[in-house]
What does this fold into?
Amino acid sequence: MYKSFLIKYAEIGVKGKNRYLFEDALVQQIKYALKKCEGEFLVSKAQGRIYVDAQTAFDFDETVERLRRVFGISGICPVVHVEDEGFEKLCRDVTDYLNEVYPDKNKSFKVVSRRARKNYPMDSMTISAGIGSAVLEAFPEMHVDVHNPDILLNIEIREKIHIYSEIIPGPGGMPAGTGGKAMLLLSGGIDSPVAGYMIAKRGVKIDAVYFHAPPYTSERAKQKVVDLARVVSRYAGPVYLHVINFTDIQLYIYEKCPHEELTIIMRRYMMRIAQQIAEETGCLGLVTGESIGQVASQTMQSLTATNDVCHIPVYRPLIAFDKQDIVDISMKIDAYETSILPYEDCCTIFVAKHPVTKPNLGVIRRHEENLAEKIDELVQTALDTKELIVVSE
Ligand code: ATP
Ligand code: MG
It folds into this structure.
């Protein structure tokens, strides 16, 4: 029955003079999301509304599924367009619509009409009242509830007349790319894909960097990260994933620094390298999956030590989240099954039995001086040999 969708968006509405930029970005993202869908679609913007109209046969569920991943959409309303052939015909169209969509008529309803085309011969109050009576006559088991109706029946008088009542929730957020670009430190764990998803949801385009330590970490571990980048890209658009060979740097730190400080010093080098790639690629900040107190390297003191090497902003969207809250989002975005695959990540190989939980910044800086001889060269080699994988759906 449905061939069209009315797309509702929330926050974009408050962007004042720039509003059209956000609307245009949303239209672009919707087009992009539907490209791989079966069928042809016309995506258009009219009078502060975005419509998706199928031009050919299409798969309803697949289309909705894709639209549900487009940031900036707050609701997806399947809508029926009928020709204006008089009010009596409209009443019949509406009862036909209700018959089709709600097999169980034991429901309350309210009619809301909008007369966007002003030459329509009735005003919106009269339209609503007339349709309400027609519905009650056709379906005596239905009743009107103006405060808390089961069905909010929308009638919009435009070129054609639009009838809709269902709102499928969208993901919210802002259209991808309207908020600049950030570099996500993406590991194979549960947290960082969720962090990337959350920042992308605010309209930020995501690039990613993964620190790989062959042969201590396997090809399968790397493939897992590529798969997680793909999960993020289903929402955020194509992800440029930089893979850094981190082995020699890790071994050198292992050789020169106290083992209980390995993780912190390693994390400082990850941040430095990520920052360098970020600056070369136009990213305005780093994103990590850190959360206070989750592990030794994420105490306030450890975060201070890690943050110390960064001069661009580090965004940590999960900072105050409990693990279970993170797991819930991970499941919602379909990352969880991949994240829990048991492949080693580069941090677990080199972790000390008793890592420092309250590192002293001065001490860490001093111990890093042990690396002076070779570290710059190793970092440069890691950057020179990085691999770029473009990940998209
Ligand atoms: P995650 O579940 O995201 O792996 P985690 O709880 O295992 O997080 P850590 O291993 O301490 O936490 O890492 C903290 C953050 O550092 C991660 O969320 C991620 O952003 C980044 N990170 C850790 N290891 C890597 C890696 N090998 N490559 C890229 N980023 C990493
Ligand atoms: Mg990890």
